[in-house]
Design brief:
This protein has 300 residues and is α+β, with helices and mostly antiparallel strands. It is 48% helix and 17% strand. Helix 3 runs antiparallel to helix 4, helix 4 crosses helix 6 and helix 4 runs parallel beside helix 7.
Length: 300
């Protein structure tokens, strides 16, 4: 029966691979594991798993993930984790463990300083579920499978072949993580921009500052401006001015309010500033616009 031996702090006692070649591949049949479980543990090695039969539940960072046949799981170095079989322990998975120093090549290299160590600390990259139906994930899963075959056969030069594929695997993981980070950032940017627009439309008649906008959406002035411009291609103040002009046009067409009253109702600080903005945008004064609209055939 397979059982994970750990120290008091749950660090695994077993060394995976050797110092010269810190890589190991295991084929876990959950029926051979005590109570169908690979218990809580952590290790310095990075781990990737590919489920080859049934469903395996992986636990990491307080979350539970059901990983089915053909899918996989990534767990970073020094992250506490465990695995448990579903469906009466009728499950198995291929497990690849390798030490991060295999990726660094040598101490002080650009590989380690730029592409390895920053991703081992700070919690930016902890674990990933890899889904076979996702093309980007499938590429990683195929590499896990290939490494397993090369490691098991151990033909001449297999260490070089394994290292080469692990380097590609790591690049794919980082690329995937970066894409997901950009996607989350883009989604957050859309949400922030929508919140800003909603706030501006609800308070356009008031004297607003960027500080007011920042307090409303929970970001600094500079971050509000950055996200809004990234999502809309415009500045917050330009958008607010354009929206005020739009509302003022409605008042010009549908009411008998004076220009000064419309300026106030639309949120402008005064009639002169309102007229200046109107002329700059529409190449005519508010009164000229009103006269033309009233004289238009569709207004009679």
């Amino acid at each position: 029966m397979i059982s994970i031996s750990v120290y008091d702090d749950r660090r695994e006692r077993k060394q995976h691979g050797t110092f010269e070649f810190p890589v190991a591949v295991y084929h876990y049949d959950m029926k051979d594991c005590v109570m169908g479980t690979v218990g809580w543990h952590w290790h310095e090695e990075i781990q990737l798993a590919l489920v080859t039969r049934g469903t395996v539940c992986f636990y990491a960072d307080g979350q539970r993930y059901e990983v089915r046949k053909g899918d996989g799981f990534f767990i970073n170095s020094e992250r506490l984790h465990m695995a448990r079989a579903e469906e009466d322990n009728d499950a198995s998975y291929l497990c690849l463990d390798f030490h991060p120093r295999l990726l660094e090549s040598y101490e002080g290299s650009v590989f380690g300083e730029k592409y390895v160590r920053p991703f081992l600390t700070g919690g930016a990259l902890t674990h990933l579920v890899l889904e076979g139906r996702n093309p980007a994930h499938l590429q990683i899963l195929d590499l896990i499978r290939d490494i397993g075959v090369i490691y098991d056969v151990r033909a001449f030069g297999y260490e070089l072949a394994v290292q080469s594929k692990i380097q590609q695997l790591w690049l794919d993981v980082l690329t995937l993580q970066n894409r997901e980070k950009e996607s989350r950032s883009l989604s957050q940017g859309h949400e922030t921009a929508q919140e800003i627009i909603s706030f501006l439309r609800s308070h356009y008649q008031e004297a607003l500052s960027l500080a007011d906008v920042g307090r409303a959406v929970g970001f600094s002035e500079s971050e509000c401006c950055r996200q809004f411009r990234q999502m809309t291609g415009d500045t917050i103040l330009n958008y607010l001015r354009s929206y005020r002009l739009t509302r003022s046009i409605e008042l010009l067409e549908d009411t008998q309010l004076s220009v000064s009253e419309i300026a106030y109702e639309s949120g402008f600080s005064g009639a002169s500033y309102y007229i200046e903005c109107f002329k700059k945008e529409l190449k005519q004064t508010p009164l000229q616009y009103r006269k033309k609209r009233l004289a238009a055939p569709d207004r009679r």
